[in-house]
Amino acid sequence: MLSQRARYAVKAMLNIARTPESASQVRSISDEEGIPRRFLEVIMVDLRRAGLVESARGKTGGYRLARPASLISFAEILRTIDGPLALLPCASRNFYARCADCPDTVHCALSLVLAEARDRMASVLEGTTLADADALDRRFQLLREVA
Amino acid sequence: MLSQRARYAVKAMLNIARTPESASQVRSISDEEGIPRRFLEVIMVDLRRAGLVESARGKTGGYRLARPASLISFAEILRTIDGPLALLPCASRNFYARCADCPDTVHCALSLVLAEARDRMASVLEGTTLADADALDRRFQLLREVA
DNA sequence: TTTAATCCCTATTAAAAGAGTAGGATTATG
DNA sequence: CATAATCCTACTCTTTTAATAGGGATTAAA
User: Fold this and answer.
1) Footprint of strand C on the protein (CB under 7 A)
2) Greatest CA span in chain B, whole angstroms?
3) Is residue A81 part of a domain?
4) Is B138 within the bounds of a domain?
5) By CA distance, what is A109's nearest residue in B?
6) For A110, which of B34, B113, B133 is closest by C-beta distance?
7) What angle do helix axes A37-49 and A4-18 make, rounded to 10 degrees?
8) A137 in contact with B, Cβ within 8 Å
9) Which residues on A lie below 8 Å from B14 (Cβ)?
10) CA A5 to CA B130: how far, in whole Å?
11) Per-residue model confidence as pLDDT tens digits over B58-92
12) Residue B76: its pLDDT value, please?
């Protein structure tokens, strides 16, 4: 399960992606998405340190995506906030660590199964970007307006 | 990430699957797998209540698989101990719950992406049984003996 | 140059989850 | 009846998570 932080992070990133022309401010993001302002500030710092957003201070400051929305995947956001996607460290690619007890990490059925599961899941999350999600949400929005 | 409980549960189930002819006792499982005995007892009760193992009390008691190992999937074990495989309740099939904030659960890009990720991962975990893992581990065992 | 609005940094708190323990009740066998 | 197993409830300890608090640094605009 994702942490609340990760859910907030994704929502914030989607919010920012929606207005690429201007910087998005924490205050407005937190209002629009229903995220505690102070909490979101802390999360945004993590996203900035991870190189996913850029910040500007001062009166007209705020956050922008560090790259086009089509180059920021869900996987990257989730990994930044919650760490590995895999179900065990020994099945992780970006945060690999061998199990303390398991002497032979390569010849372990559990590790193999979980690695395969991770790869399948990761391929979806790596392959879907903020731009994809934004496009989808806009389409849903249209449908709602028609109905 | 899996909880320690879930990792222990899988290891215990694999241990039991290895000797289908006799009942496995908590004491021996905990010794062989390096799991705290008292802790494992609690875990086994959960597995029994979920219908994955059957127990016998008394002097020659112990645990057996409730079904053939080829009919017990990793998914079932993990779900029993850690709950949903999905990254959010709104993307879960067995523990579905709509998000409190998200008014329109069907037309939500995040939900769709996570559901797809869940399905891919779940198909691996549903499709792999204790028998599969056991067979694989036995093969690894042979390789080690040759070397 | 003042002001106000932003991001930024470090602590702190409160609640929940996770890991493991303890004691004793129940049940079956010999 | 003695023994050895599962079972049940409750408890402790630690870590993580969620959120808040106070103030400092920065910058654009009035």
Assistant:
1) A 24-27, 41-42, 44-45, 48, 55-59, 61-63; B 3-5, 8, 36-39, 42, 56-61, 82
2) 60
3) no
4) yes
5) B133
6) B133
7) 80
8) yes
9) 109-110
10) 35
11) 999 999 999 999 999 999 999 999 999 999 999 99
12) 98
Spatial separation of the C-alpha atoms in residues B133 and B1, rounded to whole Å: 20
- Answer for B57: CB within 7 Å of strand D: yes
pLDDT at B7 over 90: yes
CATH number of the domain enclosing B62: 1.10.10.10
Answer whether B40's CB lies under 8 Å from B8's CB.
yes
Domain that holds residue B138: 4-72+129-146
The answer as to whether B42 is a domain residue is yes
The number of distinct structural domains making up chain B is 1
The alpha helices in A68-129, defined as continuous H runs, are 74-82, 109-127
In a domain, B52, yes or no: yes
Q: Band of the pLDDT at B107, cuts 50, 70, 90? A: confident
Q: What confidence tens digit (pLDDT) does each residue in A41-99 have?
A: 999 999 999 999 999 999 999 999 999 999 999 999 999 999 999 999 999 999 999 88
